[in-house]
Amino acid sequence: RALPGCDPSKSGPPSAVAVVNVTPAKPNVVFTLLPTALVTSLGDHLEDKRGTFALENLGTSSVQLIIGRQELNGSAPFFTIVDPSATDSAFVTLEPRKPHVFEIRYAGPSNTIAASYQGVIFVAATGEGLAVTPYAFVNLKVGGGVAATPQFLIGGTPADYAAFQPITGDDANRNPLSVSIKNNGTTTMELAAEIGPEVWLVPDATWNATALAPGATRTINLSTRRSRAPNGSPLPRYTYFGVRTKDGQSTRLLVQDSEELPVTAGRTIRLDLATRSFIVPEAISRTNSQGLPLVTQLRLSNIGSGSVQAELIFTPENADGFDTIAVKRVIVIVPANDVVTLTDPLLQIFHLTRPSRGTIEVRLPPERVGLLRATSSVITLGGGGGFVTPVVTRGEGARIAAPHGLSGITSNGSVTTSLSLAETSGIDHAAVQLTLFDANGNSAGTLSVDVPPYSVKHFDNIVAAMNGPAIDPGQLQIAVTGGGGSVIGVASVGSADGGATFVSASLASSASKAILAFSRANDTTSSVNVKTVVPVLAPASGTSPATFKTAVAFSAPVGVPGTFLATFLDSAGANASPRQTISVGASATKIYGDVIKDLFGRQPSAGSVFVELPPGGKVYATLQPATGATTPTPPHELQLPTTLAEALTSAASSGTRPLFFDGLEQSLDPNHGSRWMLILNEVGGFTGLMNIRLYEPGNRTSAIAEQTFTIAPFQQLQLDTVFAALGLDASDRRKDRTNVEVVVTAIAGTARVAAMAVSIDNSTGDTKTYALTPIVGSGPPSVNRTAAIVPPAPPSPERKRAAHH
Fold first, then answer.
1. In what side-by-side order are the strands of the sheet with 38-40?
2. CB distance 518 to 528 below 8 Å
3. pLDDT greater than 60 at residue 543
4. DSSP 3-state assignment of 589?
5. Residues 6 or more apart from 23 whose CB is under 8 A from it?
6. What backbone torsions phi and psi does residue 513 show, to the nearest 5 degrees?
7. Within 13 Å, how many C-alpha atoms sit on residue 719's CB side?
8. Is the pLDDT of residue 778 over 80?
C-alpha cells in the first residue's frame, strides 16, 4: 500500500496478494582471525610453536564443516590443524555467530636449516556447500633474528599500493608483478609473509629463502591464483601482502588484480532530458608535489539481488563530450550485493597516461538506477593524502537564470583554491561568467569560460586566473550566460595536492528545503524550522593533544546582507550555549577558525552546532589542523546535514531508510592504513534505536558485525573505531579488512539521525569525512528488518432501519 509523505496516517488500499518463492541461502562462514606469519631462530623446537585462526558462522543455523590444508610452491608438510575444544578435528560444527578458535601446530621440517614453507587452509561444508569458500595463508620461516622494519619500494620509491597489469580470463601464464623490499637496518633481515583477507596472491617460492643483508634491496615476484578468490567476486580485487620479522616488525602492501576491459571510442547515444546518469566532475591521474601518484578512486556499490551493467564514459579536459576519438567508454559489471572499486581508472581502465584529467559519466539501465551508488575520492598512492570528490546527478548545476555559488575561496601566501567547472547535462555547451567577491563582499574580478558538453575546465589557482587580490575567504558566483548546458563548480582549498573540497550550490533561496518541510508539515515529530547541523568532532581516542579543530564559515547571499543564528549542544545533547547572532554583510563571508572557542567561548569538545540560515545564506565547515599538531594536514570539508534532509534515517513517518557508505578499512598495523570512526548526530530532538551493520566485499548478504545503539535527543554518538564498537577488535575477530560497507538504519523511536564516516590516516593523520546517504529506491535485500503492513479493516456494514409509514 502507499503512504503519502505529507500525512502517513492516510494510506492507500492494500495491493493484491502475490506469491513469493523463498530459497534458503547457503551457509556463510568466514575467517575472523587470520594466521600470523611465524619466524623462528635456528635450533628452535618447531613442535613448541603455536599459531591460531578463527572461523565464524554468519548464518542463523549451525553448520558442519571440513577444514583442510595444502602446501604451496613445493613446500614439505609443516603444520597441522587442531580444534582444542574437540577430540576429533575432522568434522567441526559451528554455531551461529560464535567465533571458533583453532590451533596451528608446526612440525616436520628441519629446525637447523634456514628455509621457508607456505600453505593454505580452506573450509568446506558437508552439505550443499558454502556461499563463499574461505581461505587463509600460512607461512613458516625457519631462521631469523632481530631486524629493522622492512620497507616496500616500487621503482625505487616507498609504496603501499601496487597493481597487476589487467588481464582477462586464465591467469596461469600471467606476467608477474615485481615489487622490492628494502632492509634499512644494520643487521640481516629474515621475513615471513602474510596474505589476506583474500589469498589469491602468491609470492615466488624463494623470495625469503635467504636473509636480506643490511641496506640491501630484493625484488619479489608476485603472481595470482584466481581460483582461490571468493566465489563470484568482482574484479578488480584487493588484498594485502604483508611481511613480518621474528620480533614483530612488519609492513604491508595493498595489491590490486585487474581485468582487461574492452575500451571503445565515443558516445553512441545522446540521452534525453529525463534519463538519469551520474557524473564525476573531476577524475584525475597525475603526480603530486612529492612525486607520488594522485589518482581518482571510484566505487560502484550494488545493493540489488542481480548484477548491474554500468557504462563508464570518460571525456578529457577541454574536449567535446561527443568527440568520436578522445572520448572513451567501457562496460563494468557490478555483481549482486557487492562493490567494484576502481583505483586509478584513467590509467587502469581507460589506459591513459599521466597526467590526465576529465569527467566520468556513469550510465545505468533505467530499471537499475535505484540499486547502484557511485562514490569518488582522490587518493595518494603511497602517501595517505587526498580529498573527497563529488558524484553529481546529470543536469545538476548552474543554468541560464539559475546561478550557482561557491564559498571559502582562498588565496594567500600558503593556501590557494583550484577550480573545476564541469558541464553535466550533455545537452549543449555552457558559456559561464565567473564573478569573485572578497571577504567584505566587494567585487574582486571576473572571468568568462566556455565549457563543452560533458567536459571540464580546470584552474590550479582560480583567484590568480581572475587577477584577483589575496582573499581569505571569499565567494565565487557561477552564472551561465549562453548555451543550454548546466555547470557544476568544484573548488579545492588547500595546496596544489588538494584540501577541503566544496561543490557549488544554487544561489536561490532554499526552495527544496521549503518543499520538504511542507511535505512533513502534518508529521508531529518534525519541525518546519529547517536548520543546518555542524558536527563538531572530538579527537580520536588515543591522540593527545587534539589533531584537528572545526572551522565554520557563514556566507551571506550575493548582494544581500544576512543574519545567522547558531546554538551549540555538547555530545550528550545538553548544556546548550546561548544562541549566537552572526551578522554578515552582503556577498561577504565571516569565518571562525575554531568555532567552539571563537564563537561560543567554550573549551574544545564534541557536539553539534545548529544554524538557522537567512534565505540564500550558506554555511560550510572544515576540519583544520590544530595548533601544535605534530603532522600538519590539509583542511577537509565536513558534510553538513539539515534537520529535514533526505540523508536522515528515522523509524518514524516516511523516514525509514537505510544509510550507506562503502570503503571502510580495518588495519592491524598502527603505522599503515586508516582508522575509521562513525559519527551519528540526532537532529530532531527525539530518542531512537539505531542498527549498525558491517559487510565485507564479496559477502554482502550476511553482516560480519551488527549492533544496536540507543541515541538520545540531539546526541552525537561517536564510535571510535566503528570496528571496535561492533566487536571486531576482539582477539578472535580482528583482521585486516578493506572495502567494508557500513549500513545505519533507525529501527525504533522517533529520532532523526544523520551519519558520517571519518577516516584518519595512521601515518600522516590526514582526516576525511564522508556522509552516509540513502541509495535511490528501496532498501537493500540484505537489510533483515521488517515492519508489518496491516491492511485497514473493512468498514462495518451499515445497519438499516425499516421504514415505517
1. 38-40, 135-142, 115-125, 63-72, 92-94
2. yes
3. no
4. strand
5. none
6. -65, -40
7. 27
8. no
What the block records as the C-alpha cell of 436 is 569573485
Q: Cα–Cα distance between 101 and 212 in angstroms, integer?
A: 34
Asked whether the beta carbons of 400 and 478 are under 8 A apart, the reply is: no
DSSP 345: H
Residues 278 and 365 sit within 8 Å (Cβ to Cβ): no
How much is the pLDDT for 88? 64
CA distance linking residue 453 with residue 434, whole number of Å: 18
Q: What is the CA radius of gyration of the chain?
A: 28
What distance in Å separates the CA atoms of residue 560 and residue 614, rounded to the nearest whole number? Answer: 10
Average pLDDT over residues 669-678: 89
Residue whose grid cell is 425499516: 802
Measure the CA–CA gap between 719 and 723, rounded to whole angstroms.
8
Distance from C-alpha of 531 to C-alpha of 610, rounded to nearest angstrom: 6
Three-class SS of residue 162? strand
- The per-residue pLDDT of the chain, averaged, comes to 87
Quote the pLDDT of residue 627. Answer: 55
Per the listing, cell 561543490 goes with: 503
Place of cell 568532532: 537
CB 167 within 8 A of CB 237: no
User: Helix, strand or coil for residue 371?
Assistant: helix
**Residue 738 CA, distance from chain mean position:** 10
Residue 701 CA to residue 722 CA, distance in Å, equals 20
Q: Measure the CA–CA gap between 182 and 178, rounded to whole angstroms.
A: 13
Q: Which pLDDT band, with edges at 50, 70 and 90, does 768 fall under?
A: confident
Rounded to whole angstroms, how far apart are CA atoms 301 and 449? 35
> Residue 336, SS3?
coil
DSSP structural state of residue 513: H
Distance from chain centroid for Cα 161: 17
Q: In the structure grid, which three cell numbers stand for residue 756, read together? A: 558520517
DSSP lists the bridge partners of residue 743 as 660, 693
425-499-639 Cα angle (round to 5): 65
CB-based burial label for 451 (10 Å; 0-12, 13-18, 19+): buried
Q: What is this structure's pTM?
A: 0.88
Query: Do 297 and 378 form a contact (C-beta atoms < 8 A)?
Result: yes
- E strands, 344-438, are 356-363, 372-380, 386-389, 392-393, 404-411, 416-423, 430-437
DSSP code string of 727-793: TTTSTTT---EEEEEEEEEEEEES--EEEEEEEEETTT--EEEEE-BPPSSSPPTT--------PPP
Alpha carbons 167 and 175: distance in angstroms, whole number: 10
pLDDT of residue 514: 29
Q: Where are the alpha helices (DSSP H) in 406-510?
A: 462-465
Q: Classify residue 315 as left (phi > 0), alpha (psi -120 to 50) or beta.
A: beta
Are the beta carbons of 255 and 194 closer than 8 angstroms? no
pLDDT tens-digit readout, 210-239: 999 999 999 999 999 999 998 878 899 999
The predicted structure's pLDDT at residue 653: 66
First to last CA, the chain: 46
Residue 151, sorted as left (phi over 0), alpha (psi -120 to 50) or beta, turns out to be beta
Residue 345 — pLDDT band, cuts 50, 70, 90? Answer: very high
Count of helices and strands (H, E) across the chain:
5, 53
Let me know the angle formed at the C-alpha of 757 by 753 and 759, rounded to the nearest 5 degrees.
160
Q: Which three cell numbers stand for residue 708?
A: 544496536
Distance in angstroms (rounded) separating the CA atoms of residues 389 and 359: 12
DSSP-based three-state secondary structure for 494? strand
Q: Is 401 exposed, middle or buried (0-12, 13-18, 19+ CB in 10 A)?
A: exposed
In terms of Cα–Cα distance, which of 316, 311, 317, 318 is closest to 268?
Answer: 311
CB 719 within 8 A of CB 579: no
